[in-house]
Design goal:
The chain is mainly α. The protein is 75% helix and 3% strand. Strands 2-1-3 form a three-stranded mixed beta sheet. The longest helix has 34 residues, at 98-131. The termini are far apart.
Amino acid sequence: MPAWTPVLNQSGPAEFMFRVFTAIPELQILLFLLFLLLYLMILCGNAAIIWVVSTHSALHTPMYFFLCSLSLLEICYTSVVVPLMLSNIFGPQKPIPAAGCGAQMFFFVTLGSTDCFLLAIMAYDRYVAICHPLHYSLIMTQRLCVQLVVGSVGLALFLSLQLTALIFTLPFCGHHREINHFLCDVPPVLRLACADIRIHQTVLYIVGTLVLTVPFLLICVSYGLIAATILRIHSAEGRQRAFSTCSSHLTVVLLQYGCCSLVYLRPRSSTSEDEDRHIALVYTFVTPLLNPLIYTLRNKDVKCALRGGMVSKRSPESS
């Protein structure tokens, strides 16, 4: 009998269900409040960066344009996952139609891929600023910055559409399929297929290489050239200033690429579904939350602009 027979025998539309975090009501409440708090902090922190960059002309530079784009991306990225995740914490498992699961996977992969491409673009921006400061304004024009962001989104859309469409041509066993995850991510959905998935796994590795390995190598090359340039700076103050503009970005890069590589580039035989779910919590909550914290706490321009905005808002009230 062919592997897809169980799917043909089922009645009604296909559905997926997410495995619950816990069945203990007290822990459900704690998890709900924790995830809700983190989600609100992500929204407020990234919205604050978008507001401060948009309203302060001194921050209308390529570096802050990319930072603003990254913050907008993080808001969309977490909003694709967290609201549905919160709704599934309480009560029994709630089914999600195959179309809804495919839509979440498509947008999650698209936004996550764009995030990785954008981090590589930000590394290139720092390379031009530090290694070619006299030509920076000529190279990093507004038109080029917009083209880089639009190109990242376009490439991510193309790769995500191909991958999602390929996965949802697979037959899945049973009517109610339980995903051992809190979102319709590629690896846990692939595990539910009742067919040969070697081709699909190969495509996933190819997409993972294009989204993770290639941008990460470009980032490494950029920072290798940046490090060589910084070491040639004679003054200690100049070296420290140049390094401080890169350290925040490097922190986010290592966390984002490290966690995603563990999920998408490890051999399937060495992966654990529970491990993948725990790692996914990091790039769903921790990385989007760290972006505004790292960039505001370590960036004097953003901190000054935020203070100025708060003072200007209070001054009319006090008068």
